[in-house]
Amino acid sequence: MNLPDPPVLHLPDALATEALARRLAPRIEPGFVLFLSGDLGAGKTAFVRALLRALGFAGRVKSPSFSLLESYDLSRFRLYHFDLYRFDSEQDWLDAGFDEFIGAPNVTIVEWPERAAGTLPAPDLHLLLRFDADEGSQRRVVELVAGTERGRACLKVLAPDDGHC
Ligand SMILES: Nc1ncnc2c1ncn2[C@@H]1O[C@H](COP(=O)(O)OP(=O)(O)OP(=O)(O)O)[C@@H](O)[C@H]1O
Ligand SMILES: [Mg+2]
User: Fold this and answer.
1) Which bin fits 162, alpha (ψ -120 to 50), beta or left (φ > 0)?
2) What is the pLDDT of residues 81-136, one digit of tens each?
3) Which end of the chain is more exposed for a tag (fewer CB within 10 A), N or C?
């Protein structure tokens, strides 16, 4: 059976990326796992920052590029935001003991999940951001891939026409 192509959305500027995060926010619940892929500067952290704002977090949202992990106490759950860019091998995820943070009651967001591909569980939703024009342009494209039923429900909200718009 051929699976349909994942939906793709165009994000003309950072505001569009933030708006997408705001639309996802109501779907985030304990146990949710979100992967964010894309080159350096594609907008992964910008997306997380807008998501946290929409989830009611008013404080500073730092990129975990150096710390590997930032965590946030929200009213309904604790959210762990990872950036695995600096990982040397998949084993680093297990060695760091990060496995215990994934799953209910927490929410987990992982930038650069491919750095620990073999050791991470399947995400509910995987957003793959890429530049849609020359460097310096604000235009991005995002592909939305669901890994679970919960993720597929998100796609119905985020890309109701099955994307490609
Ligand atoms: N369409 C867009 N979507 C998201 N961010 C955009 C867009 N256009 C411009 N930007 C800007 O690009 C930058 C993206 O930086 P961000 O830290 O989110 O990247 P990143 O993907 O997390 O990179 P890294 O892999 O280094 O962590 C921000 O300054 C943001 O304002
Ligand atoms: Mg980042």
Assistant:
1) left
2) 999 999 999 999 999 999 999 999 999 999 999 999 999 999 999 999 999 987 78
3) N
End-to-end CA distance of the chain: 25
Distance between Cα 90 and ligand 2 center (Å): 19
pLDDT digits (tens, 9 = 90+) for 124-161: 999 999 999 877 889 999 999 999 999 999 999 999 87
Task: Please report the domains of the chain, with CATH numbers, ordered by start residue.
Answer: 8-158 (3.40.50.300)
Q: Global pTM?
A: 0.96
* Nearest partner of 137 among 9, 12, 17, judged by Cα: 12
